[in-house]
Amino acid sequence: MAEPYLAGRRALVTGAACGLGRVLSQALSGLGARLVLADIDAGALESAAEVLQDTPGGVESLILDVADAAAVRAAFEQVGPVEVLVNNAGICPLTPTDEIAEAEWDRVLDVNLKGAFLCTQAALPGLQGAGWGRVINIASLAGQMGGIAVGVHYAASKAGLLGLTKSFARLLAPHGVTVNAVAPATLEGGLTLDWPEPVRADLQSQIPLGRFIRPLEVAAVVGFLCSPAADAITGATIDVNAGLFMR
């Protein structure tokens, strides 16, 4: 059996403690990565680390608010060079547009967009020095066509993330580092469990494949983007949306 292609490489996942972040972390662990799980939720982070503690690549955890620039710098100094960075941390309030307070707008943009910038910026020395690397930003369908059920601030933050992806892709390409985004539509579980059934049913009826996205389907794309088969893919946005948005 071939050696997992991330064997010996350090991979940091933000928002890793639960939901999609935990699934992404498990997928990267299965590819042999030495995992660093970063999240602001200490309790959930401990639980996620326990699940993965016996994996061959090993795992360490890091309590981190990605919107705190000083904390991000300190975290990356602590863990050392990272060769795979998955910017997954995000928040998604469903506040109606006319009720969004300035503080809420700022927090969503700080976590979803500034956080990805800060983490990628902090990872630059390690990525450039390694001569190989992967940065994968978890974007959203909302950033491509506007939010259907999510807040306008969430959609704006994810649209900004697509521009950030292209900018870092150009910057890092000469160093053998690819930077891509994955844009899922609404995921099964998570926030959707709390949505009223009529809202869920209406959204689902608009999806050509007639269902929400499974987190493992997003993880499979992230795994592919980390593989040698994706060496020539950079600055791209990979859609995982069941046909809801077709270019």
Descriptive terms for the model:
single chain, 247 residues, alpha/beta, Rossmann fold, 7-stranded parallel sheet, 8 helices, 44% helix
Short description:
The protein is 44% helix and 15% strand. By secondary structure, it is α/β, with parallel strands linked by helices.
What this model shows, in words?
The chain has helices at residues 19-30, 42-52, 69-79, 102-130, 142-145, 152-172, 197-205, 215-225; strands spanning 10-14, 34-39, 59-63, 84-87, 133-138, 177-184, 237-240. With 247 residues, it is of the alpha/beta class. It has a seven-stranded parallel beta sheet, with helices on both faces. 43% of the residues are buried. Strand 1 (10-14), helix 1 (19-30) and strand 2 (34-39) form a beta-alpha-beta unit. It has one domain (10-239): Rossmann fold (3-Layer(aba) Sandwich). The chain starts with 9 loop residues before the first strand and ends in a 7-residue tail after the last strand. It is globular, with a radius of gyration of 17 Å.
